[in-house]
Design a protein that fits this description.
It holds the Pfam family FHA. The chain has about 200 residues and is mainly β. It folds into two domains: about 90 residues, Tumour Suppressor Smad4, CATH 2.60.200; about 80 residues, Tumour Suppressor Smad4. The chain is built from no helices and 21 strands.
Length: about 200
């Protein structure tokens, strides 16, 4: 299980295991990781972990989020990455070891989900997401792949020059977790991700 080492002024303050799929970092008490310093935004950043991959996302913080000296919006974390949030330095440690419990593993099954087309001649049409991977779009033009894992559903842009949109923002090559009601735009065809 990956973890982060949080230091300030060169002193290690604490080690935090990334035990949840999404963990928020900020000054306000409701965050998973609270950093009490006025230069830290109320909701500064979040780390999303899907299987062995962790992604850092800046939550439009005032002072920015930096990885290895570069300001980032979203970043795929690698072992040893140095994250700077205001006065804090955070080292990402990926041990590549998944937690093992004494009990036999019970496979988690994500809830059923589907894609519903919102516009055009196929409006109202639904596509069940019951396979490990579902591809949408045309090869060479624009393709989105939706992965179904124990942790839930995630979408990524895998092929084509045109960049698809997720909730109005460009969808990148790294898997983005999907939430109920999220909207995908594939060359003008709007589709909603629905759970249940």
């Amino acid at each position: 299980m990956a973890k982060i080492l949080i230091s300030r002024d060169g002193v290690l303050e604490r080690t935090v295991q990334l035990t949840k799929e999404r963990m928020t970092i900020g000054r306000h008490r409701h965050n998973d990781i609270v950093l009490e310093h006025p230069t830290v935004s109320g909701e500064h950043a979040a780390i999303t972990t899907i299987l062995d991959d962790s992604f850092l996302e800046d939550l439009y913080s005032t002072n920015g989020t930096f990885v290895n000296g570069h300001r980032v919006g979203k970043h795929f974390l690698q072992h040893g990455d140095q994250v700077k949030l205001a006065k804090y330095r955070i080292e990402f440690v990926a041990d590549g070891i998944r937690p093992i419990s004494g009990a036999p593993a019970v496979p988690m099954t994500p809830p059923a989900a589907h894609i519903e087309v919102l516009n055009g001649s196929n409006a109202g049409r639904k596509l069940e997401l019951n396979k490990p991977q579902t591809s949408l779009g045309r090869t060479g033009v624009q393709v989105i792949v939706i992965n179904r894992t124990d942790a839930g559903y995630a979408a990524a842009h895998t092929d084509g020059e045109r960049v698809p949109l997720l909730n109005g923002a460009p969808l990148g090559k790294l898997p983005q977790p999907l939430a109920d009601g999220d909207e995908l735009d594939l060359s003008g065809t709007r589709m909603a991700f629905r759970l249940g």
